[in-house]
Design brief:
The protein is of the alpha/beta class and 313 residues long. Helix content is 18%, strand content 26%. β3 (56-60), α1 and β4 form a beta-alpha-beta unit. Bound molecules: zinc ion (2 copies).
Length: 313
């Protein structure tokens, strides 16, 4: 067990250490970036999660958070990373054209994603979003080495001693979820998925099974999801209440509520965190800058980007 709460186990971590697994959040917001005075603490950037597993760097999604990650990576050139896209809705790709390391010769990015329902590859879709007149600079200008990989649903990828699995999620944009395994540690990245009304999604359970960290789409509350006249049923997203059910059923160690609705300001998320913790104690609201570190020997730690309290203890 990670055995920590959101505030009393904050310790310094060293992201440069190699024999550990580090999860760092650069963008936690769904749908559209929403910077402003009411989202300062949890952050306004759209999805991007960095996972350092031993010597290998992984990036999940290229929302606006990847721009900020790119700035940080400039301190660690040259960069090699494996970038896995869940799908190509705007909030998961719009930061990629601003990912500076991809423009720099000497850096190497392995980019993974499934084909869209119309057959378009991840390379084609990332290329298309940078075409004139939508964007001034084409993807071909990127001077880093970009190696594109088309994933099949269920394909298992081995990268040195890291394994990355995927399954299809329940989402209008054909999102896929990932499960990264390294040295007995597991991170599950499950965003942009809608739960089923009558049973837990077996694909999500497979990804989440006994994970050290489950990052899960908690865009809505149950009340919002079922709101009369404004129901979110069929929109492709889930709730914190469903996240808790999955975390329990899959015996997850640490649940991270992710892909926050842009309408959910800091105070709303504070309250959501308090409620969720009552049902699943090891729950954290994803926050930009949140860094979690795990070692294969069971040691773990948690660090927030600033001294600002996460507010949900
Ligand atoms: Zn999304
Ligand atoms: Zn989506």
């Amino acid at each position: 067990m990670i055995g920590l709460t959101a505030t009393d186990s904050i310790r310094a971590t060293n992201p440069l250490m190699q024999e550990q697994l580090t999860v760092r959040f650069w963008g936690v917001r769904g749908s559209i970036a929403c910077p402003g005075p009411h989202t300062v603490r949890y952050g306004g950037n759209t999805p991007c999660v960095e996972v350092q597993a031993g010597n290998q760097k992984f990036i999940f999604d290229g929302g606006t958070g990847i721009r900020v990650l790119g700035q940080e990576l400039l301190q660690h050139l040259p960069v090699e990373a494996h970038v896995f896209f869940s799908h190509t809705h705007w909030d998961h790709i719009q930061g990629f054209p601003f990912f500076v390391p991809a423009f720099m010769p000497g850096n190497l990015f392995h980019i993974y994603g499934t084909r869209a329902s119309d057959g378009k590859t991840i390379e084609k879709r990332l290329t298309d979003q940078m075409l004139h007149p939508n964007f001034p600079v084409p993807l071909q200008i990127m001077g880093g080495s970009l190696n594109f990989h088309d994933l099949e649903i269920g394909q298992v990828v081995h990268i040195d001693d890291v394994t990355v699995r995927n399954t299809m999620l329940n989402h209008p944009g054909s999102s896929i979820g990932y499960r990264l395994e390294w040295q007995g540690l597991t991170v599950s990245y499950v965003t942009d998925t809608e739960h089923f009304p009558d049973a837990l999604d077996p694909n999500v359970l497979t990804l989440a099974q006994q994970a050290n960290v489950l990052i899960y789409d908690a865009t809505y509350t149950n009340d919002e999801y079922h709101e009369a006249g404004n129901s979110k049923i069929g929109w492709g997203h889930s709730t914190w209440q469903e996240a808790v059910k999955i975390a329990r059923a899959a015996q997850v160690e640490q649940l991270i509520l992710f892909h926050h609705d842009p309408l959910h300001d800091d105070l709303f998320l504070d309250d959501m965190g308090r409620q969720a913790c009552r049902h699943f104690a090891n729950t954290i609201i994803a926050q930009e800058g949140l860094t979690m570190t795990f070692a294969p020997n069971g040691n773990s730690s948690l660090q927030y980007a600033s001294a600002i309290s996460p507010g949900h203890e």
